[in-house]
Amino acid sequence: MWLAFSLFAALCTSLTTIFAKIGIKNVNSNFATCFRTLIVIFCSIVVCFLTNGFSSFKDLDIHNWVFLVLSGLATGCSWLCYYKAISLGNINKIAPIDKSSFILTSILFMIFFFQDTTKNGDPLTIVMIILSNILMLIGTILMIGKKEDTEEKSKKWLIYAILSAVFASLVSLFVKMGLKGISSNLGTLIRTIIVFIFSSLIVIFRKDYQGVNKINKTNWLFLILSGLATGGAWLFEYYSLNMVGVNPIAVNSIGKLSILLTMLFSFIVLKEKFNKKSIIGLATLTLGIVIIIIFSL
Description:
By secondary structure, the chain is mainly α. The chain has one domain. The protein has 13 helices and no strands.
């Protein structure tokens, strides 16, 4: 079941990026992030009611609160940076950088959950995890390419994409720690509320709500769809991540397979171009992900 839920999460993640890319056209990226988070909150509340997730509220302790809050703050920072990046650049350049956060996430999981992630220190599993991360790093570098744009706008997307990856690498670790002993659906709701508060403060402080009356129906539709897809991705992934005996690296890596669908959608729907180096990089990145899944099972 955890494998199926992780695959569903990957599909939802792919749809999130595409819907968001379309939805934030001519829309402030910070406001878009805040609005999408509100949609995720509604999704989480509905799921908590349907699954009786609120019953575990009494089991929350200081450990849960600290790490859920940290995961929410890290998510908020990652989102703000990521959607700012895709508002400035192409998905086929930004997506691989964002997914490279998996490398740091894998290292953190190996440090804090060594027994679960390495099959109790199995040397072959450790070697394959290292190999897969090297392949993913090479794939990411190939997909980014060496061509530099002299425009200031083109330089900014890279900075935002890197920051997004750094914050994203901390999210899954904090979530794994924060969900201990409670319903994953309740944990998702709490951290989403933290993200919403964080992003709302940014919007209010920067007055990014100005011009909201000029947002057209198409933008609103795709922002809502993006929020629904995000809600599905989180609920599926964190349910899998919270299951007993599941390797967190395997769950996290399956989620990164979303890059395949993201790149495909960006080519078909957004008409973004790929060169041979990008295709080789995508294949290398995918190979690294597949290897780490196989040796984490």
